[in-house]
Amino acid sequence: MPLRPDTRAVAVNPAFEENLTSFAADVTAAMNDDLNTARVIARMFDTLPVINQLFKDKAAGFAVNPDTFNSFRQFFLNVFTDWLGMSVEGGEDNQAKDTIDGLMGVILQLRGQARKDKNWAVSDLIRDELAKVKIKLEDTKEGTDWYYEQ
User: Fold this and answer.
1) What is the DSSP string of 112-136?
2) I want to staple 61 with a disulfide (CB 3.0 to 4.6 A). Which of 10, 93, 102, 108 is the partner?
3) Would residue 11 be called left, alpha or beta, if left means φ above 0 and alpha means ψ between -120 and 50 degrees?
4) What phi-psi label fits residue 85: left (phi over 0), alpha (psi between -120 and 50 degrees) or beta?
5) What helix, strand, coil percent values describe the chain, rounded to 5?
6) 53-90 tens-digit pLDDT
7) Helix axes 91-116, 120-132, angle to 10 degrees
């Protein structure tokens, strides 16, 4: 599961918001301009200072709309993997990722059962122990999500 930014309400930074919002149109235009992959890659690099600053300042809150960030992230990964044919992870990493995802599935099932049984001590213990290894749990209406915390 991907790392997520802290999404506490803060003032949206218009420059950051515009950079991420315009990304899809910019790279689409570049690809439509005779498959100008150099311009696509340059535009990808243009987003890095924004992303780095967002994560650097996350203690103060996340200065873009969460929907904007999620749309940007999904489109960026699509461009990176599908359009440019690059890989996010190597083969060995995929096996480790699958193992971690499987283990987290089991852990979340156990925590879900503890919550269903109103065994708050076990539920809290699981959450707190995962937090010690920088894994954050987020309870939603659909269930519990997890992600790595920086």
Assistant:
1) HHHHHTT-HHHHHHHHHHHHHTTEE
2) 10
3) beta
4) left
5) 65, 10, 25
6) 887 766 566 678 888 888 999 999 999 988 988 876 65
7) 150
